[in-house]
Amino acid sequence: MKSNHQADSSHETSFPRRQFLQAAASLPAVGALGGFGLSLGQAPASYTGKAVYLSDLGRCEPASALSRKPRRHHWRLLDYEPPELRGVMLVAGQNTAAPEITLPVPQKGWHAIYFGLRSYGGGEDESRLLVRLKNSDTFSMISHRPDPAARNRVDDYFWKVADLKGEEIVLRQFWTQAVPENAGSVGNRCDGVWLAYVKLVPLSDSEVQLQQRDRQNRQNKRLFAHHDAWSYTYSYRPTTEAEIRRELEPFWHTDFSRIYWEGGMGDRMYYPTKIGLMATDHWIEDPYRAGDRLASEAWQALKKKGIDPFRTALDYAHKIGMEFHGTYRPAGFHFPVPEDEWNTGGFYDKHPEWRGRDRRGKPTPRLSYAYSEVRESVLALLKEMASYPLDGICLAYNRRPPLLEYEAPIVDGFKTKYGEDPRNLSERDSRWLSYRATFLTDFMREVRTAMKEVARDQKRAKPIEISAIVMSSESENIYQGMDLQVWIKEGLVDTVIPYTSVEKLLSSADSWTNPQDAEFFLRITRGSACKLALNLMPRQLPPEEYRRRALALYRAGAEHLFFWDSDQRNDFDPSWTALRRLGHKEELEAWAAAGSPKIERPGSELKKLGDWDLTYATPG
Q1: Can you tell me the distance from the alpha carbon of 67 to that of 45, in angstroms, rounded to the nearest whole number?
Q2: How far is the C-alpha of 254 from the C-alpha of 248, rounded, in Å?
């Protein structure tokens, strides 16, 4: 049946086998890389059928939500022509607030699903699309990252492989309620969408079997993800459980086995705490950034609805098949302006006597773990967090050190032991650094004891694991009070996660480009019960670099990789397609054996958009 919006537009366009294989040859085929029939998260290049393009999106329902002209609360229908294809695109702008629509899918059985996306570009707009299957209750957010040099390009973004029997594809424009108490205001922020088509690649019976076996294989689940559990409230203002689940949706059927979901920092907690401060920020009359206000409104709305984001994320992670490790930032008791109000009325305000001291005795804006009262307060929060049925807790020492400086308990203890005042020594004096580190070692012993107590009280069959995110090297860790060798020798930590190989926690720098930088961590964990997971930074890397660096670290002896701020990586772009399969060592080896070929972005250039011939150049 033809669309009543464009009589000559076909709903399904199939590429002949020859043309499809030419396009698929640019994809990283696992059939050629290690004997699997599926590519690295993509459809198989060895597939012998036809790719089907649902290119007339004017067939979406209801028809009343579609329009040939730009109209608020309507998806605009726009004719387009790339090579070998013609169709009707869906467009929604920054003011549209387009409604939810459904795309009927006549295909049945298992298919790899792609979305053909472009962006307006020019630094003004990047497409962001919410998608789900009809029988799912959680959307995925697909964010397009355009190539600035190819503004008229449509990119094929792989979503997932699924059985389409009885399914339809549900589409929604993403928007954020920026205007309080007015969901319909034109002031609410919308992200643009330019969706050209949905591409479906059917799987053969043997490919389906390989897909299912691969999903059940736990040997490749080598990847650990992190989520700070606050930034999404700043950006998106979530107020429902489905919006929280959406943060975890990309991890289905990937090589990720753990999510490190933050539960708090200092006494600012991301669950309904009875000890600390929940991050509602209702006491802040004038938040500095728009995102701060959105986050405050989100946390207040979730609290009012009785929604616990921490528990929602935990339950969904377990449903996906991931371990859930509640993560805590030990140094988060006080922040510089304009975040100085975050912990108002908390431990930092109430206990100035617990604050840090520099070598001159001047107070510093920290709470020091030299004081037993600080450690006891944090242990109470960790035990509260561990009251949830999580799999482990993690101490994120990689944010805002130091935790120990020149506080009286450390200085006096050093004087007693060595007969010298450490304030007269070099700050790098080995005796001083080793002695100061004993205070964090004592804290780690206390954490281990506390987690054993919680596990015993809950009658757990397995212990609560303890992870620590640490500094770049042996010297930097001991300088910050972390004696990792002692921690591992005494069994105080189950997983060590070096944040980067670069000093001073520089997130923008490339980590582990030289695998020899990891030798200290490999050596101290080798033969122990402690796992090592090396964090790959910066947050955005080309797919080839993800593969190249992961393979080098595996060859050096690493078994696990960590990804800080995974929510800034899992947007379904080509880098995520590669990243989600980095646990498959044999695929990486085969890719390297093939010469580490560049991973081309599947897609095509538009020739015509609306009535405009895009081959017609208008300089300036």
Answers
A1: 37
A2: 11
Say how far residue 406 (Cα) sits from the centre of its chain: 37
Q: For the residues 564-581, what does the mean pLDDT come to?
A: 96
Q: Is residue 371 assigned to a domain?
A: yes
Whether residue 243 is found in the same domain as residue 199:
no
Q: Which domain holds residue 523?
A: 222-582
DSSP line for 509-536: SPP-SSGGGGHHHHHHHTTSS-EEEEEP
Q: Supply the pTM of this predicted model.
A: 0.92
Per-residue pLDDT band for 124 (boundaries 50, 70, 90) equals confident
Cβ(39)–Cβ(574) below 8 Å: no
Alpha carbon distance 537, 433 (integer Å): 28
Condensed to tens digits (0 to 9), the pLDDT of residues 445-496 reads 999 999 999 999 999 999 999 999 999 999 999 999 999 999 999 999 999 9
* CA pair distance 224, 535, nearest whole angstrom: 9
Tell me, yes or no, whether 122 and 186 share the same domain.
Answer: yes
Same structural domain, 45 and 172: yes
- The verdict on residue 588 lying in a domain is no
- 70's CB contacts (< 8 A; 6+ apart) are 76, 91, 93, 96
Check which CATH number belongs to the domain holding 435 and give it.
3.20.20.80
Q: Is 589 inside any structural domain?
A: no
The number of distinct structural domains making up the chain is 2
User: Do residue 163 and residue 298 come from a single domain?
Assistant: no
Both tokens of residue 267?
């006494």
> Which tokens is 104 given?
């009927």
